[in-house]
Specification:
The chain contains eight helices and eight strands; from the N terminus they run E-H-E-H-E-H-E-H-E-E-H-E-H-E-H-H. It has an eight-stranded parallel sheet with strand order 1-8-7-6-5-4-3-2. The longest helix has 10 residues. Bound molecules: D-xylitol-5-phosphate (DX5) and zinc ion (ZN). The site of zinc ion has 6 residues, from strand 2.
Length: 211
Amino acid sequence: MIKLAPSILAADFAKLGDEIAKIDKCGADYVHIDVMDGHFVPNISFGVCVIESIRKYTDMVFDTHLMIENPEKYVDVFLNAGSDIITVHIEANMDYEYIKNAVKSRGKKLSMSIKPNTDVKEILPYLDDLDMVLIMSVEPGFGGQKFMPDMLKKAEYIRSINKTIDIQMDGGIGLNNIADVVKSGVNVVVAGSSVFGADDVEKTICEFKKY
Ligand code: DX5
Ligand code: ZN
């Protein structure tokens, strides 16, 4: 069965605690937390104080997707705030060794993401260190974009060489394309608008969790 990681970027920030309680009750697995700095991506979302606030209200796994330059400057504060998984982008300037040690020394999970135009093979030198690979199926920066089906090949490739690593896909995923996503080898699914924008959030999560 897949793990479902609703992205709170699509939630109502005025009632974030209630939104998270709802997805928790409905059986979602992770809270996907999109941090954007306005440099690595052309958008600013929110920072560490939001994570600290919501950590008090749920025991769900916090899956923190850092779309920021120089993530080594911030990795400690995001871990201290309660992140369980840290994803950094291979395209960002970073001190990778520092990040790896910060995450692993706390027993947390390390993940690396690739943007749509990045060759999947660039991830290979890191694969042995990683708990998860995040394949972007839209250009990072905004929710509600159209899914790029060509990205499925990247998941198929990673799965063909590693049967056990978590493969996450992020961007434009809904009940209309989840079957293809899972078939490609993805086992951790991010869904923003299709979950928080659904008329019936509980039913939508149940439908996702059939895969
Ligand atoms: C995009 C973010 C995604 C986004 C997904 O930069 O990384 O996590 O919130 O939103 P949807 O599912 O609406 O494409
Ligand atoms: Zn994301």
